[in-house]
Design goal:
By secondary structure, this protein is an alpha/beta fold. About 35% of the residues lie in helices and about 20% in strands.
Length: about 280
């Protein structure tokens, strides 16, 4: 049975990707053979596209998305960084036939990717699930991250880590579909991706102390993540700045692309100086 109406998170990301790609017609990010390459990482083939030159910058997309989510951002950053866009495990062209998925597993994938690319460390930009992965990568592999910018991340999957309306919608979808027999590979993969956000992440505030790199924690003032929760993440990291983007929903890097690009770039370029 097709699960066409199941995945609220994925639908949101598809909408954001379409908004972003409409702005950049020259290159279809995520389907550019000239820049694309697969790497064998931890039992699967991770699909990447690389643009520009300079210090490495890893882009990590969100649930149900792909590297195409960053169509508004890659051209800007590729002017001065070696941009590494990657389709996360079980997303885009990075196929994963396993029956489960975790943020810890995905963070280890990104560390492994940098290893096979012979990159000691990188700047990281993560959006939504990608923002969670950026935090996990910095916690689990601190030497791999120079600085990170995480937008729209949450630490736990309840109505305090997500706005109640969104969490309740996810709850309805889970109850409606939890007993469906999944037959196609796509339906099984879609359900696995949905469960990732329904059951995870499960990060304790104290664990954020493991993050030693300078971090820019970002959220929209009308985000799917409550502002107080984003503030908690910022407060848990010793070297962190906080940016709550006015008049923004979950897609800070799409809705305010020019400001986002400049502020994140400035953060990467300038020494950390928390007053």
């Amino acid at each position: 049975m097709p699960l066409k109406t199941l995945f609220v998170t994925a639908a949101l990301f598809i909408a954001f990707v379409q908004m972003g790609c409409s702005q950049e017609k020259a290159i279809t990010y995520g389907n550019n053979a000239a820049a694309g390459k697969y790497y064998d990482v931890r039992g699967i083939k991770l699909y990447t596209e690389t643009y520009g030159s300079g210090k490495p910058l890893l882009f990590i997309h969100g649930n149900g998305g792909s590297m195409g989510s960053f169509a508004n951002n890659i051209p800007y950053f590729a002017k001065k960084y070696k941009v590494i866009a990657v389709d996360s495990r079980a997303h885009g062209k990075s196929v994963d036939m396993a029956d489960s998925l975790s943020f810890e597993q995905m963070a280890d994938d990104f560390a492994g990717l940098l290893d096979v690319m012979h990159i000691d460390s990188a700047y990281v930009i993560g959006w939504s699930d990608g923002g969670i992965n950026a935090l996990e990568l910095a916690m689990r592999h601190p030497k791999k991250v120079i600085k990170l910018a995480s937008t729209g991340a949450n630490l736990w999957p309840d109505s305090t880590g997500l706005i109640p309306q969104y969490w309740k919608e996810e709850q309805k979808q889970f109850e409606k579909n939890k007993n469906i027999v999944l037959r196609s590979a796509k339906d099984k993969n879609d359900w696995k991706i949905f469960l990732l956000d329904w059951l995870q992440p499960n990060i304790k505030l104290a664990e954020l102390k493991k993050i030693q790199c300078p971090s820019l924690i970002i959220g929209g003032d009308h985000d799917l993540i409550p502002v107080p929760h984003t503030v908690q993440i910022y407060q848990g990291i010793s070297k962190a700045y906080l940016w709550i983007v006015p008049n923004s929903g979950h897609g800070t890097l799409v809705e305010h692309k020019d400001e986002f690009n400049k502020i994140v770039d400035d953060f990467f370029q300038q020494p950390f100086n928390k007053r």
